[in-house]
Write a structure and sequence with these properties.
mainly alpha, c-terminal domain of poly(a) binding protein, RIBOSOMAL_L20_CS
């Protein structure tokens, strides 16, 4: 029986998978079936964590704003600040407020004092 030479398409597909998994450790970077499973798992984790990252950053911003607002030892909290900002229709999102809390506390204090009055 003569030898049948297979095509290159499957080999190219496996090579691409191996390049994706080249940074993995052990069998996860060498064995084709394990690479396939690990690739699926990695892509699922990446998709999940992109959503989680948004959540985590929002939590971080809220924590920073709240810490700076409460520094002045006024009975004033993050929730009251955000409520009064929305009541006055000041369009400052949490990311900007958190940057102000880190880089320029005085401007954040000025805004909060104006809102208190």
């Amino acid at each position: 029986m003569t030898r049948i030479r297979r095509g290159y398409i499957a080999r190219n597909r496996r090579t691409k998978m191996r390049l994706f998994a080249s940074s993995f450790r052990g069998a996860r970077s060498r064995l084709t079936r394990t690479i396939t499973q690990q690739k699926i798992r990695a892509l699922v984790s990446a998709h999940r964590d992109r959503d989680r990252q948004k959540r985590d950053f929002r939590r971080l911003w809220i924590t920073r704003i709240n810490a700076v607002i409460r520094e002045r030892r006024v009975s004033y909290s993050y929730s009251i600040l955000m409520h009064s900002l929305s009541k006055r229709q000041l369009l400052l999102n949490r990311k900007i407020l958190a940057q102000m809390a880190i880089l320029n506390k005085k401007s954040l204090y000025m805004i909060s004092n104006e809102i208190i009055k």
